[in-house]
Write a structure and sequence with these properties.
Length: 142
Amino acid sequence: MIVSAQPRPTGHPGYSETFPCLEESAEVARKLVRTALAAWGLHELTDTGTLLVSELVANAVKHTNSRLIRVVISRPSERNVRIGVVDKSRTMPEITKSDGEELLLGGRGLVLMDAVAERWGTDVYRWGKQVWGELRYEGRTG
């Protein structure tokens, strides 16, 4: 019996990096997202992916007291890309209903994520959580 390794179209193991929980980390998180999407040939998702990670980082900075965050980018399937931010807070994110003026000053993160992501959620760990959004690639693969 001959066993051959098949290349994984989803890329393995994915991309992740730890950053300080600071606003400035959004810039390097966007670079990480661009790198992952380019490696997977999913350039069409770049604008949405960088927007999504920017909002996730901003939410972690604003709503947690974590010193560090971890940005994680993976492909759970050939057509889906998951972008998440891990922090040490167990406080669950909530979409708040704000009026137009409040949205201009902030509070857009989860509303925006809900609008652009195929789906999103939170994985809770004993020591914190990961908030993530999935983007779906609708073009031709492989």
